[in-house]
Amino acid sequence: MNRKSLLIPGNLLLITYLFISISLVGIVSYWMLDNMDTIHQAADKSSQEAASQEIQQAINKTVLSIKEQMFKLKNWNEVYQQLSDPVYYDYWRSNRSVATDILSNYVKAIELYDLDGSSLNQDDSNNEFPDQISSETDVLRVLNNRLFYFQFMPLHDLQKNELKGYAGMRIDFAEAFMALNSFRYVDAGSVEFHINSNLKTIEAQLMNGVQYNFIPVPMANELEQVMLATLFRIVLLLIVLGVIAYLIVFYLFQKPLYRLTRYIDNFSTSNDSNIQIDINTLGSVFVKEMDILFNSFKNYQYDLENMYSNLNKKNIELWRLTHYDSLTSVPNRRAYEEEWKQLIGLVQGQSISLSVMLFDCDHFKAINDTYGHATGDSVIRAVSSCLQSCLRKNDRLYRLGGNEFAIHMINTEPDEALKIAKACQQCINEYPFKSFKIKEPIRFSIGLAHALGTQFELLTNLHKLADIAMYHAKGPGSDKIIFYKAGMETGAGSIISSRYLHAVYDAIENGRGILLHYQPVISFSSPRENFCEVLTRLEDDQGLIMPSHIFPVVNAEGLDLEFDLAILKYIKSQFDKHIIPENCRISINISGASITQPVLFDYLNILCPYLTRYRIILEITETALITELHKTTEILNELRNKGYQVALDDFGSGYSSFRYLASMPVDIVKFDYLMVQALDSNDTQRQIAMDVARMIISAGYDLVAEGIEDEFMLDKVRMLGFTHAQGFLLAHPSSEISIPETYTINQRAEELTV
Amino acid sequence: MDSKLVGLADYRPGDADKPALLILHGFLQTHNFGIIKSLTDELADNGYTVLAPTLTLGIDKRARSFTCDMIQSHKFDDQYAELDSWINWLKNNGHSEIILIGHSTGGLGVLAYSALRNTLSVSIMGLIVINPTILVTKSERDKINKNLVVARELLAKNKNELGEFTLAYCVDNYISSPGSYISYASITENDLFSYFSNANHPVINIVASDDKLIPENMGNKLRKKGGNVIDIDGANHFFTNGHEFELFDAVNKAILILNKKQSDV
Asked: To the nearest whole number, what is the mean pLDDT of chain B?
């Protein structure tokens, strides 16, 4: 799972914490309330049982007390007075019987009966007592919503046990019940009796009919109240603590963190390239650690700002480096291509004239080779300056590489473009290149092409068309300024440059189209010293491309290193595929510009393991020695120590210097074709060439004569002591590697003679 | 008296050679009344046979004092029969010499009994009358006289209904039949002296000098009638505040006097 998806927002965490805390408080509260309820229920049950017991005891006590009242009555002699002389019975019954303190107040009425069970009361018709009793059954009756206990008892002479009559007593049972009992577990005010007279005994009727509320155990109530109060305080305390904790966390941590994250969000989502966002908007913090965090962040931001500023500068610089030519300070090929795309987008579909002008210096390589790169660079700078001076405000000059320049001109008709081209040409022609000690005139070929924004096909191929025009301009006898005309691309050589360029880039980038030819270099003395020079060709769908077309492009595009690496990789693949037979001795051309490059050196190290199976000679032109003698010497020494041999190629074609030769770690010197030709001349050149050859040979180098095309020259070089010869006379370059291992040049010569 | 009624009494057998003493309590009281009980105990302790009956007042085996609001259907004369019964009872139990002692209206009772009903064949040695009094108090005399008029009218109309009368210390709450009320309320001070004068037995009076419940100057009045009076100075009607012992002395003295008189006879 993505770690980021597991991250929880602080606010949510805080709210979750609060929610959990409140839930826990709620659960604990519920648990305590539930427990309290259980305790309460247990206490209620206990109270209920106690109340039931109490009410039963109270009923029993009341009934017993009521019976005691009857016994008091039984012992009251006035009762017997009334039984014996009931003359004033009515008065006694009404005024005397219950007015004394003999009987309790809850005895509300007394009735006396004679021996026959007839009431002594003869007049009172509204009497709740029965007029006649036949038994002594006690009875409960409700009168005026009050429960009365009617109790009857026989009255006997206390001493003689002689029946004197009967007594009836009406007792307000509820009053008696309340007067006789005090309740602890029963709510006295709630006691009510609803009598079911079907039950047999008075006690049973009372117990069955009593309704009451019990009094909860005071301790349980007090305990519950204490627990509730405690719970309330705890909950209140927890809520207060929770709120305080929330506020502390919120204000001291979460809010500053929120401000910080919002600030960071704004910071990160800001499209404004200006990174300056006021850090002071973060506000103040009151916690030391937060202060440290904020300060760290502030410091971090200051550092970031500085870094960003530096990076911005670096980016600008990098952009400038990648888009501007360091030599001339004009936009380079990359800038050209980017701006070209923008320009196409801008003018496409519009009736806007767009002209492209390409400049290419004729024979610039020769100037470089002759006068050195420094001079070449001066020439390029001068041309750039000259071109810029001729351009209008909105014209854009680019250096596409080497000696190639381009100009975009918007809203420029062909005449105007041609006019500007001529001005540029004139400026270049008039420039005092002699100040660079250059004797030769500097000539530029200029190709122009024009299209309207509405001419889509022309527009997209405008550079190619200008390129075709420029190559036309390079043609011999051509006007040096050529405007592209339709059909021009069908002419011979017109599309060479783009084809070669494509082939070179395809070889470099994809390793495609590389084809190796091998030309034997044959020893005069030992077949073992024979070797083959690897010659590079490119092949595309139109056929073979020869070095004469390859290397101008490579040089012009500055692709020496890339191209050499591509060839070396290809050779390696040939090794791996055993297309090049083992134990072959081959020489590989390395450009002077590449030999000092670490990348090339590294790759040659990669090839070192192959030295056990192959004898590899690296051919380097003497121009490499000229430019970086000391560095090149070190590198070649290292390579030789690793097992490579070094050949100095085209000796005599440039600035051949014996000083260089003496100090260079080379094994073989290859006499340039012109030097070999010089051996056949009759002037001083011949003598010099011969002397040079002897000197080289006597210095111990192997000396190869290039360009041997006839017997005469072969004899000549043999006579001079050359160790090897190379040329069409001996062998043409071939795609099939064929190193003569069994014969020498002498034997070969004999074969040829035969 | 209703022959069915049974009376209660405190009987203390004593020396056979000493006279039996019958002590009669006052108005609505019982033999357990304080001074009666004390006197019974004292005399019994002195070796006398003592019988202290409680008049039934119409209540079988009456054991408690009557309260004013109890139905008073008894009459003053009813006690004669009960005294007869008790004296006979003593006689039947071997006591041939009897001295009657009465306190308050008990004194009035024994005087009236001696004067009006001396029909028994027993030897009553004499009477000791302690603070004899009637039930018509000086303060309530007028009210009692009015009550008597009402009672007599009711009786004349043969209406025997109860009335709320005033008698002795029962003021307006003496619940009584007309006949009963008249029997008590109609006894005057003169009647008292008449009973004294007509008593058929020797009488020795013991009079407390500070008794407010008896007619004023009772001691002197009895003396004027020729009575033998023993005064107890400072004593009240119930001989409280330490005069109880003086009463005991006086009664013992009176018994000795009556005993001596009997011997003289």
From this structure: 89
